[in-house]
Amino acid sequence: MANKGQQSKKTEQLKKYTDDPQGQPLTTRQGLKVNDTNNSLKAGPRGSTLLEDFLLREKITSFDHERIPERIVHARGSGAHGYFELYEGQEAYTKAGIFNDTARKTPVFARFSTVAGSKGSPDLARDVRGFAVKFYTEEGTWDLVGNNMPIFFIQDAMKFPDLIHSVKPEPNNEIPQAASAHDTFYDFVSLTPETLHNHIWAMSDRAIPRSLRMMEGFGIHTYRLINAQGESHFVKFHWKPILGVHSVTWDEAVKINGADADFHRRDLWEAIEAGQYPEWELGFQIVPEADEHKYEFDLLDPTKLIPEEMVPVTPVGKMTLNRNPENFFAETEQVAFLPGNIIPGIDFSNDPLLQGRLFSYRDTQLSRLGSPNFHQIPINQPLVDPHNNQRDGHMQTRIPKGRTAYFPNTLGGGCPHLSKIAEGAFSSYEERIDAKKIRTRSESFVDFFSQPALFYRSLAPWEKQHVTDAYSFELGKCKQDHIKGRMLWMIEQIDADLAQKVADNLGMDIPKSIEKPINQAIGADSTVDDFQPGKAKNYLDTSPALSQSNTKFDSIATRQIAVLVADGFSMHDFKAMKKALEHGKAMVKLIGPHGGTVKCDTDMEHQVDAPIHTTESVLFDAVYVPGGKKSIATLMKNGKYIKFLNEALKHCKAIAADNEGEDLLEKTYVRDFKEDKAICINTAPDEFVNAVARHRNWERMEKTGAIPV
Ligand code: HDD
């Protein structure tokens, strides 16, 4: 039944399993009250420890087994609870209750992740981000397990182990951690041209998001929506963040990893704690069945996107994340996503990558969570109580009643019984298949260069520069010239100018030809070599939706603003700026010369949020320096403030100063950028607010190369 209280239904379910130690005595796992958990039982005060000590054994045994295997990919992640609400019924396309009933508030749990790094790796690795959402619907659980990029590296699940083995730390020395910049990855990429599209996205700013709350999400594969009449439409799922899509620079990413390895995790947690709930709109890109073969790319090929200019994305609802987990392990670590978890009204397509995923995820949970009963873990439990004849296994926590565990039966009254489709039972879409069984790649998949080229063409000049820098960094870290050469040849197929710039940075020439790798990549007897590199198709000059320069720039909500102060800072300046920033829901943080408090020029005490020696410029979106003679004189004596401002300048951030604050800027390279539109000296606070909302003044980038930080 429709009801707005659904989110609380999942929260209530979780509450039943939540332990709260407040006011409770410490007990053993058997409930025995404990008198001493600090000393083991010994034969005399200095004597050896007794085997009899069940308290010691229980505590140590439990500790010894605390760890479970980390995810083979996406090990590093952060999650949150929330809900999904529909804008308008989508009955024309799907019978899924979640897309029919606008009165519902469907509970969700979302987990965001990097791919290659281990569980403890830093958040700002250059990497794809996982974007997985579990919808606890009334008809069963639906998992939409996507990424923050709309395409994938490979076309067939058969190649997934090869892809991941190449990008993970090399097996002989387990180096490098959470980084793709090494020979084995580029050996694979350069031999597997289907990777180039996702790869160029990974070289773009999408791979170093400013926040998990400021990235898009994509279901990637083409799925099917099935309506009540049994009709099918193809669909691609898109998540669009309300705050827009924003990224940091590579230099910042590297420094953030040192200054706060948990930057993204902390940002998500703190935004939710502050009541600034992250939100995304879910959108459908619908293609009628009749149009399946209309495009110059194959809808089943997960390395291709459908440009939004060709098929628009229609927003259908919104996800809001409004509650942090109570316990990281129990919820974020144990949550198990399965692309195979679907509900009536949604179905799979024949995308061969998706088809392989349908096998892999259930399989991996068995070794990760240790039992086929992983669906009984509270975070994985559906809202609907499951009843079936599957039995036993490690960690069975339910007590299935009755004599029968088979179907059909009479002894159990025929229960659990089957349901008709009209009663909400799932039935697979009856797709007509008439084909030979064959191990091959469809010829319609063999165009590896058109879409990476479309992506690159669609970028703004500053984004193109970032891509050039990223290729130059990554390949610069590779040792083998033959691998770098092959990569340069591949990049040249995307864009000759890009390839030349990267080649110059590598100090290499682009090879005239390479031994064609396509056969190896597809199959020894393959004939697809004949198509390569193929004439790049140009069905669209540019797709503006692909560039972050066309994202939203209308909010400063949750932006972290550093205010550099010492005793004697101007309350007059600060008050006006703080009011404007907090009106826009930015987070204003006082950076002082020490912890505790600083006094403004009206003798009021202000709590310091971070002493300068504990923080870094890269952790903030913008910097403000209020006036105050005494304050500025103190700040000028500490080189860290100069570095702080120079870095903010280099990273194209908004900087503001009032009155004597300008004297501090004179000590920095900001003095050469006074005409810059995001440098606000003695301007109205709103000008600074507008500059912060623009995220960065990327045009500045052309001139910041000489700044030595
Ligand atoms: Fe995968 C985890 C996303 C292809 C095998 N994958 C995993 C997660 C995300 C994705 C977001 C983490 C979920 C979480 O937070 O727990 N994977 C993708 C996307 C893909 C993709 C968007 C392509 C479009 N994956 C893919 C293939 C295979 C896998 C082709 C295997 C054939 N993925 C796995 C896995 C993981 C996983 C090994 C590791 C942990 C887990 O499943 O639960 O089964």
From TrEMBL:
InterPro entries: Catalase, Catalase_AS, Catalase_clade2, Catalase_clade2_helical, Catalase_core, Catalase_haem_BS, Catalase_immune_responsive, Catalase_large_C. Residues 9-19 have a biased composition (Basic and acidic residues). Its cofactor is heme. GO terms for molecular function: catalase activity; heme binding; metal ion binding. Its EC number is 1.11.1.6. The keyword Lipoprotein does not apply. One of its GO terms (cellular component) is cytosol. Heme binds at R71, R111, F160, R357, Y361, R368. Keywords: Heme, Hydrogen peroxide, Iron, Metal-binding, Oxidoreductase, Peroxidase. Residues 24-41 have a biased composition (Polar residues). It catalyses: 2 H2O2 = O2 + 2 H2O. Transmembrane segments: none annotated. Residues 27-415 form the Catalase core domain. SUPFAM superfamilies: Class I glutamine amidotransferase-like, Heme-dependent catalase-like. GO terms for biological process: hydrogen peroxide catabolic process; response to oxidative stress. It is an enzyme of class 1 (oxidoreductase). Residues 1-45 are annotated as: Disordered. Decomposes hydrogen peroxide into water and oxygen; serves to protect cells from the toxic effects of hydrogen peroxide. Belongs to the catalase family. HPII subfamily. This is Catalase. It comes from Pseudozobellia thermophila.
